[in-house]
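Recap slide: AraC family transcriptional regulator, sequence and predicted structure.
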Amino acid sequence: MSPQLAHTLFDPDATPRPAVARHLDFVDYAAEVPVHTHRKGQLIITLFGAVVCRAENDIWIVPPDCAVWIPGGIPHSAKATWNAHLNYLFIEPGAAALPEKCCTLAISPLIKALIDRLTHEDMDDEADSHAARLTRVTLDELAAMPQQKLSLPVSSHPKIRAMADALVNHPEDRSTFQTWAKRLALSERSLARLMLRETGLTFGRWRQQLHLIIALQELASGVSVQNVAAKLGYESVNAFITMFRKTMGSTPAHYFAERKISAR
């Protein structure tokens, strides 16, 4: 059974439990879960690989040791890398003190282990069962996790959306801001104002954030730094590493090494 079919057949809202966990592997599938919604909020954790979610006019990247939180009732879709192993935790509204907006959360090894354990538990309805106690601890711990800035604002404005779709599909396109203004039949000043109003970012910052999201997804899938730099249109590997260090605080190698150590 494919992960997409498994996701479709499982209804998290069918149970009144405060939280229910599921595990999905995408190793043998090119998996994309189409736009859907449910009453329970959804926490998506990557154990390996990466997943990209679209919700609330934003793109959310979920690299290893992070999770994306999607509150209940918000339409969303997800696309995983071919080698992704994911854990889902569906949470009843009000069961945990989690943000009211979509966000990416840092996930501690403890929370990762707790949720992984819950995927194997028989979730009976007894309030004092072992699974129920594990669930309460998990939800308490989740409320203390810090947010990570790993999202890309994508406006519903047709011109911004057209540019965003083009650059998501062709991230190697290094066209200048002036070129994009001409393509969109706007003056540079009008496009600059539109970008800030619709996304809160300048064009340069927006494209850098897009490159960071794609880089994290590709690197988490095992793609080499050299190939990622080429895919994003950088003239040299050093230029790409410099961008990554400025935004993430370390080189790609150190970034993923630190997360492996943290997971252990």
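The chain has two domains: 3-148, 155-263.
Residues 1-6 have pLDDT under 50 and may be disordered.
(End of recap.)
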